[in-house]
Amino acid sequence: MAAADIKFPPSLLGMFGILGGLWGLSASGNLAAAESIVAAAAPALKWVGRYLPLFYVPALVVLPLAVEALSSSELSKIGIVLGLGMPFSLFSAGVIVLGIRRLASVALLPVSPVPKPAPFTMLHLVTCAAVALGSAAALSQATPGSDLGFYAQQLHLLAWTVGGLIFGSIPPALLAPLMPHPVVATAVCATIGVACAGQLTGEGYYTTLKTYLTKGKDGKPKGSGDVLMSFLGVVVLTFGFHIYGQRALLVRHAAEIVGCAAISSLLSMLVTASAARALGLTPDLTLALVPRSVTVALAMPIAQQLGTPESNIPICAASVLVTGLVGAVLCQRLLTLGGFVDPLVRGLATAASCHGFGTAALAATEPAALPFAALGYGLTGIAASLWAAVPAVQSMLKGLAGKHDSV
């Protein structure tokens, strides 16, 4: 790999190590050992699945800092790429899977349902409220610029962020019909928390927002957003366990699942780069949008591999989240409109176009398609990461985006 100048994100290498280790144990007759490892990791896997939105929401919260330099024309062009890109990816993935399915001719068997994470309770919400109030009291008494003031501020922001996910997941019955997606609720609550903290310290919204996600730049201490996003690498590691758990499904439908992930991920990136550049977006903005159909945990490393400036990484994350939200609302209707009825096709097409959000949207009404979506959205991100690590593909994407490396 080094000789070919192919570089993978460390978390992806770890994921392959987990998957390869578990599969190797199982194949060598040590199934009990593999299952004991999975059982030991189960509590952590459930915890990550339960709090998953928290780990990418910070990029959405700090989006105002990233878009303040963009013109209304650039924002509208980004909206066009995202608005039309999701249906394109959905239908193209559906056609790809349908074509492979006809060639493979593998019968669809009943599959085990995907277990849902445990619901939040009022105790979780009350705890977050208590932490928010306690940290607000400490913040109001702390000396400006002190360590106590900073950590009280970040604890306050963390409580609002976590509380937003919980409130968005278990809203009061009267508000439930009006509530947006839990991810949107989380971002809104975190934004309110930033405004409250800015009011308590007198620093204002934007100054406080800059402390939420610093990435340690210029020696700045990391904020609560940094703490949350540090778990994205762990999210990628969990894919190894999830894929292993669905290995029977993967082996039986390898042609459809792997074929869809490999072809649709590359097609999505190539078409996105071409469309964004054709609309006149800058090369850096174009490359930030390229991994829009990939889960955030892998989309941001892909954007970085392609040379996207650090200042545009929140735009990359936001494009993924917007794509997912649009897909969660429209993917099932669009698939029905397009005449796609096979559960395998619907699940894989959803995963390839709107990743985890679309997968979650299938949970309530399409249990037969859900396992394929749950397997496909991780594999689509992995396939996109593999493509982005290949120098020839990197050069192609950069060329389509209009960005040429200096010699």
Task: Explain what this protein looks like in three dimensions.
The longest helix has 33 residues, at 72-104. By secondary structure, the protein is mainly alpha-helical. The chain has helices at residues 10-27, 31-51, 57-61, 63-67, 72-104, 122-141, 147-169, 182-201, 205-212, 224-229, 232-245, 247-252, 254-278, 283-289, 296-305, 313-337, 343-362, 370-389, 391-401. Among the domains are: 70-106 and 247-401, no CATH class; 122-212. It is 73% helix and 0% strand. The two termini are 23 Å apart. The chain crosses the membrane at residues 51-71, 78-100, 120-143, 155-174, 227-245, 257-279, 368-390. InterPro entries: CidB/LrgB (IPR007300). Pfam families: LrgB.
Structural class by sheet pairing and helices: mainly alpha
Computed Rg: 22 Å
Largest sheet: none
Number of helices: 19
Q: Could you give the order of the helices and strands?
A: HHHHHHHHHHHHHHHHHHH
> Which consecutive residue ranges, at least 5 long each, have pLDDT under 50?
none
The fraction of residues assigned to DSSP E strands is under 5%
Distance between the termini: 23 Å
Q: Can you tell me the overall shape? A: globular
Mean pLDDT: 90
The total strand number stands at 0
Fraction of residues in H or I helices:
over 70%
Please render the helix and strand layout as text.
Elements: H1 10-27, H2 31-51, H3 57-61, H4 63-67, H5 72-104, H6 122-141, H7 147-169, H8 182-201, H9 205-212, H10 224-229, H11 232-245, H12 247-252, H13 254-278, H14 283-289, H15 296-305, H16 313-337, H17 343-362, H18 370-389, H19 391-401
Helix pairs in contact: 1-2, 1-11, 2-11, 5-13, 5-16, 5-17, 6-7, 7-8, 8-9, 13-14, 13-17, 13-18, 13-19, 14-16, 15-16, 15-18, 16-17, 17-18
